[in-house]
Amino acid sequence: MAIYLTQESRVLVQGMTGGEGMRHTRRMLAAGTDVVGGVNPRKAGRSVDFGERTVPVFGSVAEGIAATGADVSVVFVPPAFVRAAVTEAADAGIGLAVVITEGVPVHDSVACTAYAAARGTRIIGPNCPGLISPGQSNAGIIPADITKPGRIGLVSKSGTLTYQLMYELRDIGFSTCVGIGGDPVVGTSHIDCLAAFEDDPDTELIVLIGEIGGDAEERAAEYIRDHVTKPVVGYIAGFTAPEGRTMGHAGAIVSGSSGTARAKKAALEAVGVRVGGTPTETAALVLAALEGTA
């Protein structure tokens, strides 16, 4: 099994006919994703030839769903249009919208994630690499050839660290890897993914990757303490970051001890999560934990 995305998922790409949309649609198709259509009101009725598959372009998400039964949308539109794209997808009844776009204004993220949640649409992102269930489907920009299907579930704020842990643990493989994004407001949290992995019978261990800023990891630690029975291994990026300064794509601001990597590490370790000091050490902790539960 997997969480959120399976081989049965039927994917629309909002913004498929743009440069990034075309590039990553090709990669998703190569990974086995069932991309059933693109969405661009100005190019409705056309189709795009990707070699082994020709993908139709629809004028709206609703039209795409009606014609194909799509239940997932991947959003490759400029930041100024993300709110409208997500609103359209939610109004059409899409179950999952994966927002890859970086630089979405925070007030737009607040509005569209709340709007989608009220209509039963799960948002992954914005500013995220998407998610992949290896061997089944890939929605976003995560490289599909660096790992294989397996028994680890991964949830991460960082795209780059998602890829690194996938590669480090490629011999074991993953049920699903979810890049939730590092913006101040995202549609899916660590806790959401922890709950889903806890319920997934094919996920034996969970890897949680966090980074400085905010309190998402501390809240995840509380959830793990009360609700997660599977082993969890963590990694927190940003131990050398200076205090009081905005850093990186997350826009993380660290003040005093609040939001620091050390505070997050301590919170996770207090509930039994093993936290690595480097990605490679984190991978070694995963291997040790799996051997201990074998």
Structural class: alpha/beta
- Beta-strand content estimate: 15-25%
Helical percentage = 25-40%
**Largest beta sheet, briefly?**
7 strands, mixed
Q: How many β strands by DSSP?
A: 16
Which spans of ≥5 residues are poorly predicted at pLDDT below 50? none
Sheet with most strands: strand arrangement: 3-4-2-1-5-6-7
Quaternary structure annotation: single chain
Rg over alpha carbons: 19 Å
Number of helices: 9
Calculate the terminal CA-CA distance, rounded to whole Å.
Answer: 19 Å
Mean pLDDT: 93
Task: Sum up the overall morphology in one term.
Answer: globular
> Order of helices and strands, N to C?
EHEEEHEHEHEEEEHEHEHEEEHEH
Relevant terms:
34% helix; alpha/beta; seven-stranded mixed sheet; 294 residues
